[in-house]
Design goal:
The chain is of the alpha+beta class and about 400 residues long. The chain is built from eight helices and six strands; from the N terminus they run αββββαααααββαα. Helices cover about 60% and strands about 15% of the residues. The strands form two sheets. A four-stranded antiparallel sheet has the order 1-4-5-6. A two-stranded antiparallel ribbon has the order 2-3.
């Protein structure tokens, strides 16, 4: 945004060069030693061939006035005036490209924190589930239907889950700090996430049938404006071969005194003024002008090549992002069903254990499978939201 403001001031500077340039000037000169000239002595009745030394001038000289310079035609300046709007658009687009990059990073960290909240909720549910199982197992132990080892194993599992929850909360806390930094928010300010994440939300607005156009991408718009600016460069160097025309004028007052009496009333000041029309016609510049034109054309071709390469990269990004998102959604559905199945297996195993037809080993295995399924689901959810952000950015819709 500061670059944009700098460009605005640069444009005003270019515009100013096309306006009349008016300046005032003044000077006072004290001639400590007047210049001496040799004058033939015969002018004063002297002998021919001899000279007299005479000092011409006065001790004090003062001049004051105003001058005006007006550029009438200069192809390079006029090209600069034409390019002003494109230069502003170029910097404004650079702001938008930068904002999009910031938005992309914020999206990813924001939803990583939202997924982290879901992870903590699942950990809490697991802890509560194991604590309930631990309570039931203790009752069975008191009645002689379970071993002390079974209770100890549950203590270990609960401690592991609580430790994992502590690490998850620490990662979320650090994630908040990173998000605040990206947003330019003081880290000591409070930030609360209000969004929740669902499968339907991840799918929403993605892979629609709307046709894609390269102009939807901000970086392509930026590259396109870069080509236009290179075209102005070519035009500028071409017009530099044309004549330039300018108008100069000045009006001065001049006074000469043997004493410093310039501000004394009644003293004479003499007018001096002139108007000049200047025409400068380039004839031969040692082929440097042609070299500058050709260099500008080659630079413009580089910008065109970069824009075409960008189109290939965009095509690749879109197709890659589409493939990644499709795969991520498929994995998300699979992991969600797998987690639901693992929950069902755990509940059935728990009931068998409570009635005495299941073993502690079976319920430990079911708990481990459930935890693995939940972890896989959390990872699949995060991968899906990242794939969505990448796809929305690739298609210029973020």
């Amino acid at each position: 945004m500061l670059d944009l403001q700098i460009q605005q001031q640069t444009n005003r500077e270019v515009t100013g060069s096309a306006y009349p340039q008016i300046s005032a000037n003044g000077s006072i000169t004290y001639n400590a030693k007047l210049p001496v000239s040799l004058v033939p002595a015969e002018f004063f009745g002297g002998a021919p061939g001899t000279f007299e030394e005479l000092a011409f001038g006065v001790k004090w000289n003062a001049t004051g006035g105003v001058s005006l310079n007006q550029l009438l035609f200069d192809g390079q300046v006029f090209t600069g005036l034409q390019a002003r709007r494109t230069l502003i658009d170029f910097q404004e687009k650079n702001v938008e490209v930068t904002e999009e990059a910031v938005r992309t990073n914020i999206h990813k960290i924001y939803y990583q924190l939202v997924v982290g909240k879901t992870q903590v909720e699942l950990l809490d549910a697991n802890i509560e589930r194991l604590q309930k199982l631990q309570s039931d197992t203790r009752i069975m132990y008191d009645n002689g239907f379970a071993e002390k080892l079974d209770i100890d194993k549950l203590d270990v599992q609960i401690a592991n889950l609580q430790s994992e929850k502590t690490n998850a909360l620490n990662q979320i806390s650090n994630g908040y700090l990173g998000l605040k930094v990206l947003m330019g928010m003081p880290v000591n300010h409070e930030l609360v996430l209000t969004d929740t994440l669902s499968d339907d939300m991840i799918r929403d607005g993605v892979l629609d049938a709307a046709p894609f156009d390269y102009s939807q991408r901000l970086d392509y718009q930026y590259a396109d404006l870069g080509v236009k600016l290179r075209e102005y460069d070519v035009q500028r160097y071409k017009l530099a071969k044309l004549p330039t025309l300018s108008l100069n004028a000045y009006y001065n007052k001049n006074a000469q005194r043997d004493e410093f009496t310039f501000f004394k009333s009644g003293e004479s000041w003499f007018d001096i003024s002139a108007i000049t029309l200047n025409l400068n016609v380039p004839i031969f510049s040692g082929f440097s002008a042609n070299s500058r034109i050709q260099k500008a054309r080659l630079t413009m071709q580089q910008s065109i090549n970069q824009r075409e390469q960008l189109k290939l990269n965009i095509d690749n990004e879109i197709q890659t992002a589409r493939n990644n998102f499709t795969t991520a959604i498929t994995n998300l559905d699979f992991q969600k069903r797998n987690m639901q199945l693992a929950e069902s297996v755990y509940e059935q195993t728990k009931k068998k254990f409570e009635v005495g037809t299941g073993s502690q080993t079976e319920i430990n295995t079911a708990q481990t499978d459930l935890k693995t399924a939940q972890t896989n689901y959390i990872n699949a959810m995060y991968n899906a939201i990242i794939a969505k952000v990448d796809f929305m950015k690739a298609t210029g819709k973020l």
